[in-house]
Amino acid sequence: MYSTDKKWASDADAEDPLRLFRDRFLFPKHRGSDVVYLCGNSLGLQPKTTRAYLDQELKDWENLGVEGHFHAKHPWMPYHEFLTDQTARLVGALPPEVVVMNSLTVNLHLMMVSFYRPTKERFKIVIEKHAFPSDQYAVKSQIRFHGLDPETALLEVGPRDGESIIRTEDIESLIKKEGKAIALVLFGGVNYYSGQAFEMNRITKAAHAEGSLVGFDLAHAAGNLTLQLHDWDTDFAVWCTYKYLNSGPGGIAGCFVHERHIKDPSVHRMAGWWGHDKSTRFFMGPDFQPIPSAEGWQLSNPPIFQLAALRASLDIFDEAGMENLRAKSKKLTGYLEFLIRQSSRKDIEIITPGDPEQRGCQLSLRIPAGGKILFEKLSKNGVVCDWREPDVIRVAPAPLYNSFGDVYRFYEVLEQI
Ligand SMILES: *Cc1c(COP(=O)(O)O)cnc(C)c1O
Q1: Are residues 189 and 264 in the same domain?
Q2: What is the CA(3)–ligand 1 centre distance, in A?
Q3: pLDDT at position 292, please?
Q4: CA nearest ligand 1 atom 2, residue
Q5: Ligand 1 mean position to 393 CA, how many Å?
Q6: For the domain that residue 274 is a member of, what is the CATH number?
Q7: By the 8 A CB rule, do 127 and 139 touch?
Q8: Residues 363 and 276 in one domain
Q9: CA-to-CA distance for 152 and 210, rounded, in angstroms?
């Protein structure tokens, strides 16, 4: 269906029902024109509306001071609730199962406090080999915090020799083999390096069959894949919002806790006043009564500017619809894959799975020699993607603001250099 003819790209853009969303975003410039931005997996672009959303809060603060908690246009006291429904739709959750708070690694720790409760028999954590460093550090520090040794308590599943993708059956057989010794299975939704999307549904089933809990780090999956956290029966999940969700650098993160845990008072947690029952929070009593929803894991009153920036982006996501975005994404990344395969550079190996169900928008290109030079030349020519040591260029067309023309331009520059 694809073609290397430039006209194919302009026709595909003309037919793209989501094409107008591109105009809602601000693109950095290169020699006076928009860059080809293929780096939404690292930092999403700024929506044109973000400034107005932030300005509203600055104005309300200016005019109302502390009264803004109740009388701002969007009152600060319940501000995080304005994001709940959209967030729930985005990850396939019930509204009480989600909350936006803190940052990703912080939320991962908070979730492990609740859901990694090792016992003498059941104390191991299963993660993907080459997980994002922060996840590896977080997991190992939790293991040590409980007086255990990562050497024995951490199990990593990796690709087989000579392969780049982790086979689901290998994950399942490790879980089965270790069975009752596993306390927690913690996987990425999409691996940041290879771009592989894991079969979260199957991983959850395998873990639950052995009686262990399951959590997902959705940093590269939220706003990229269609997710069904509630139906998959996932115990918890965490994600950041500055990648595909365009909330701005260091933006506030998301957190999911399955319905069956949110009302369970036996679940241990770190507590803070913002997680306390809203009706009695301001009685300032000494005993913590958690809100019976994911909000019960909140610690502090949240950063309103960050919430406002995230709202600007989620309002756009809601309009576009995650299903539509995913449909375009498959076509867009398929096109990128096609063009790379047609390219005269024969030294590029795509390590991301070829099956669109096993990946999101990112393709990871392994270039055994001279990859860094190629990457630098792409940058000099106004193509923004990123480099991951030792030999990978990550390229991620985001369906919300990238066009088929962008992907074609990447190919053109690749051919020119
Ligand atoms: C981006 C990313 C992070 C970043 O963590 P922060 O706490 O937001 O700095 C963590 N884990 C994964 C898998 C990531 O891709």
Answers
A1: yes
A2: 36
A3: 95
A4: 219
A5: 18
A6: 3.40.640.10
A7: yes
A8: no
A9: 19
Side-chain half-sphere of 205: how many Cα atoms within 13 Å?
A: 8
401 and 377 both lie in a single domain? yes
**CA 139 to ligand 1 centroid distance, Å:** 13
Residue whose C-alpha is closest to residue 175's, from 151, 199, 145, 197: 199
Residue type, 119: T
Amino acid at 362: Q
Q: What is the mean pLDDT of residues 272-289?
A: 90
pLDDT of 129: 95
**At which of 318, 337, 364 does a domain end?**
318
Q: Given this model, what pLDDT does residue 230 score?
A: 98
Q: 43-65, pLDDT tens digit by residue?
A: 999 999 999 999 999 999 999 99
For residue 347, the domain's CATH number is 3.90.1150.10
pLDDT digits (tens, 9 = 90+) for 86-137: 999 999 999 999 999 999 999 999 999 999 999 999 999 999 999 999 999 9
Q: Give counts: helices (H), strands (E), the chain.
A: 15, 17
Q: Judge if 285 and 351 occupy the same domain.
A: no
Does residue 44 form part of some domain? no
What distance in Å separates the CA atoms of residue 24 and residue 4, rounded to the nearest whole number?
Answer: 28
Could you tell me the residue range of the domain that residue 218 belongs to? 56-318
CA distance linking residue 144 with residue 32, whole number of Å: 52
Span from the CA of 235 to the centroid of ligand 1 (angstroms): 19
Q: Residue 220, exposed/middle/buried by CB under 10 A (0-12, 13-18, 19+)?
A: buried
How many angstroms is it from 104 CA to the middle of ligand 1?
Answer: 6
In a domain, 149, yes or no: yes
The reply to whether 306 and 246 lie within a common domain is yes
Testing ligand 1's pocket by substitution, the residue of 105, 127, 139, 224 carrying the most ligand atoms inside 8 A of its CB is 105
* Last residue of one domain, picked from the residues 318, 335, 356: 318
- Give 284's pLDDT tier (boundaries 50, 70, 90): confident
Per-residue confidence band for 320, with pLDDT thresholds at 50, 70 and 90: very high
Pocket of ligand 1 (CB under 6 A): 103-105, 132, 134-135, 188, 192, 217, 219-220, 240
